[in-house]
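#dry-run=false #mode=assembly
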Amino acid sequence: MNLGIRNPVAKGFFYILLLLWTVSVIYPLLWTLLDSLKDNEQFFIHAPWSLPRFPLLWSNFSYVWSKYNFNTYFVNSLIVTVGSTVLGLLLSAMTAYVLARYTFRGSNFLYLLYIASMMIPFILALIPLFFLMNSMHLINTKLGLIFVYASSLLAFGIFVLAGFFKSLPKELEESAQIDGASHFGTFFRIMLPLAQPGLVTVAIINVLNIWNEYVVGTIIVNDPTQYTLPIEIAVMQQEMQYRTEWGPLFAALLVTIVPVLIMYILFQRKIASGITAGAVK
Amino acid sequence: MNSGSSKLQRNIFIASFIIPTFVFYCIFTVYPVLQGLYYSMFDWSGMSQHKEFVGFRNFKDLFHDPIVWKAIGNDYFLVVGKVIGIMTIATFFAVALTRFRFKLAGFFRSIFFIPNILSVVVIGVLWNFIYNPQIGFLNGFLSLFTKDTVSITWLGFTSHTIWMLLPPTIWAGIGFYMILLIAAIQNIPDSLYEASELEGANQWHQFSKITIPLVWEQMKVSILNIMMTTLNGSFVIVWIMTQGGPDNSTQVMGSYLYQMAFQQYHFGYGASIGVLILVLSLITTVALQRLLRHETVELG
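#status=ok
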């Protein structure tokens, strides 16, 4: 019934605005790709939007991969992201299930505590975190990063998954328990598999956040062999004041961007639903 | 099975699912936050064992530190700039992609979200290249229209550089809030629009009389969220793009905290800046909630 905008001039005008924003989003990515194939001379002589000269400098990629140790940072990022997502997801799923399905003394308070902590600025914890990790000998370790990241994922995970568990029909558990399944069996064999869509959504949002995290990383890690990709990108940019290797820097950016871009293309819908679930507190 | 042992089993189950998470959370989140409050009462270099209790002296010093005032001003400048920029553009896109019935709406929607999946570090580095005086895109573009080559150092002016931080942060934030508003608009029943259509309401009327009142709650959440994330998180983009410079002109509370604690080893003072951020976030949340109070329309 509602046909939207009918005035063709107005419609054309809005279309142009949408296209302009599309360009503003796509172009920096394209620019990153093009610039990752240039040598220094091209940066200084040609316009910033000029196409890279042939032969394309694919060697920028192998250069950051081996000379700048991006193989190490990539693997570090991968380990930390997967580790903290799995740990955070398991812990938040267990708590979310119990909070959604069992009432006991303090259960409401516990739920509110997790939710309320989303309102506390994490930056307040930064300084103590450094000393805590130091005293636990977790400075410069991937395990340290995994623990802090997993903990930072809990509130969001509990919030979304508790909502998800509540939406599953109660009869399933009842019949499982009549069939003699224990509480544990019901959770691991029935409820957890049923919650898979919710788990996937939370996992993806968490992976995006952790893969891109910088602040906690830079405070807990100062040993270059333990850097994650964002930390190294920031360090690399600093170094560019003393040596100009723009091409490799753009290649490094692309190495960081591509994995999340692929993930986004595969899981767009999940990401959107995770955001809407998480933001409506 | 008697009820006593089944009750015991139930309690064991609950405890084993609640306690590990809670302990973990207390160690790595709750404890550091409380420690942050505690450290703010000390004069402490962090490196030595010596930690002198000074009560509220750090806060008194904060009050007399001109850079703190500058940082607070910058934080709120970014909050206001981002709220206006992001909410205006995100609302426009959300309405355009739902109510205007554009073909390709799904395509635009997917594209507009992309900046939100990038690391702030990546965004900062990219925009540094847009602003770069010699090889940057912005000067290159402006040079097309001038006789001489433009070589403005965009991030070099103490008076204006903070303005240059708005475009990247707004650019990076649009997609997220657009998705939220799209979801809210899609929850509005079509019949409301159809009825208003029959009464001859145009797009603007529909927007101001139906869409805005019905997504107001969502907009409120969005504004509060922008405020929170800006006060707590602006530090990264500032750190990557300007390091708080030139001459502290883009310092925000977060970057000042980092600089004080991890570069100048005034950990107690840094912690008190953290407490200041907490206090200001809470005050601003309450103030905004008052300010944005509005008769919410409930759908029957």
